[in-house]
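Need the bound structure for adenosine monophosphate, inputs here:
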Amino acid sequence: MGYQIGIDLGTTNSVVAFLETSKPEVIHNAEGSNVTPSVVLYRSGEEVIVGELAKRQVVTNPEQTVSSVKRLIGRRFKEVEEKEKYFHCKLEEDPVNSGVLIDLGWRKVSPIEVSAEILKKLKHDAEEYLGETVDQAVITVPAYFNDGQRSETKKAAELAGLDVIRIINEPTAAALAYGINREKSETIAVFDFGGGTLDVSILELDGNVFEVRSTNGDTFLGGDNIDQRIFEFIKKEIEKETGINIEGNIQSAQRVKEVSEKVKCELSSLDTTTISLPFIVSDSEGPKHFQRTFARDEMNRLIVPVLEGVIPPCRNALMDAGLTPKDIDAVLLVGGSSRIVKVKEIVTEFFGKEPIVAGRPEEMVAIGAAIQGGVICGTLQEVLLLDVTPLSLGIELADDLFSVIIPRNSNVPTTASKRFTTVVDNQRNVFIHVLQGERKIASQNRSLAHFKLTDISQAPREVPEIEVKFNLDANGILNVGAMDMTSGISKEIRIESYQTSIPIDYEKEIREAEEKEEEDKAYVKKVRKKERARHIIDFFNKFIKDEEANIQEEDRETFRNYIGNLELALEKQDFDEVEQWITALQAMLEKYRNIFMRFKTDD
Ligand code: AMP
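Answer from helper R.:
Posting the output first, comments after.
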């Protein structure tokens, strides 16, 4: 068996670590660096190039160079087309699975293939560094990755020849790297701000037990958004000075993008820097240069509107954990964008304490992944990692209701089950529609998968018992089983496909669910009223059938009339009228009170 590594497969950069005896160490790539840009260059007829060399080609070959592929993996095209309009490659819808295809001009590649190329390079460089084959890996993903995104990441690793022994959440990995062997009881907040995403997690560390209390974030907020603000600013400045708009010029735009990121990084350690773009545009008079100083304060004014977006996830994570900033013993800063001075200031102000930068922020996640690998294979002593699921999981019921089986913020791995029944007599099949979300109305949540349990035992409605069991494994991948408790017929599915899953913006979803709570409650109330009316109709139909001999002819007619009117009112969804006819039926029943009593006891 070969070596095992921990991989932080980042949006912008990837990092690999391994365990040297029991000490984690970061692996340096073939270029001698601890980070490998997650950039892949596909030039027609040539070998695929990954990492720093590919990154340098973005300017000359923007359309064949794929970066930030993590923003695309496991997502549907419809979901990314608006958000990712700044992608420098052409994106289109994959006709097979509604996912994304990247059009390189001479061929099309899927995000899985691109991620697999990055992973192949990481595997190869690790093997060179260690002088051994590497065949197993723990890979980290943002806490907010859904099933589809996790599954596709796993598929990419398999394509790269890696056996994924565990997928863990990035903030949890960072907490492991920070907290292992500290033997302290503390509540920490991990603020992981990378190139594409922000994850905020609250963890309880107690010896070697790591319990995630809550997790929140924004999958569309990261360093790239900050670069975009700076890019827009420089673009305008160039236009002001030269009268030329660089927008349509792919190469100039790409150079401005690169310089935007560069000056941003420089201003993390300097107060001022220089934006230098020689030969950036040209007109009939010849080439033009652009140079100007750029101060941290000036950058801050530009980026503060973006950075304000980090507050709601911090607030929500605390709220979900039932804590206030005062309860947090330490704030751990992770991810490249945490190096921005203004970010540190905002985090300090929010939590009321200086955050900790343990080690190199960009290495923490990979180190945590290597530690987790060591725990799984027994090199390190047992660590109990209790992670949570960010959104509730459940199934659709009749009348578009959502029944939660695993509530949001439950610890994973977890198993939960609930029993359901049928809605019509002699129902042959039940349709299990698995959803994720916080709304009480099923159609307002995200559809993950559906399947049918066929040939269930036939019985009157509401008699059969169907047990639906959810098993969310340690990788955050969901298995759903349904069983007819009478016949024992069962079916199970593993939710790996993202084809039916729609956009993920967890924070927005939770907020929306809160805003729409009253609306949802009103809907549920209406459904309950409908259910009650249907039960009453069933009751009276049974009553006049069973007691035909004891009810006067004209009263039977009246009963039928009222039942018919109640059905019509129900169809119209006129609940005032529904109530009127129910009252009328109940009044009629008074006359047959004696039979009714008997009827009830006999039933
Ligand atoms: P990560 O996803 O953790 O690799 O973070 C990548 C993001 O961090 C990118 O947007 C980088 O531009 C940003 N980044 C890296 N180093 C710095 C720095 N010194 N100052 C500001 N941002 C940085």
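Comments: The mean pLDDT is 88. Residues 10-13, 194-195, 223-224, 261, 264-265, 268, 335-337, 339-340, 362 surround adenosine monophosphate (CB under 6 Å).
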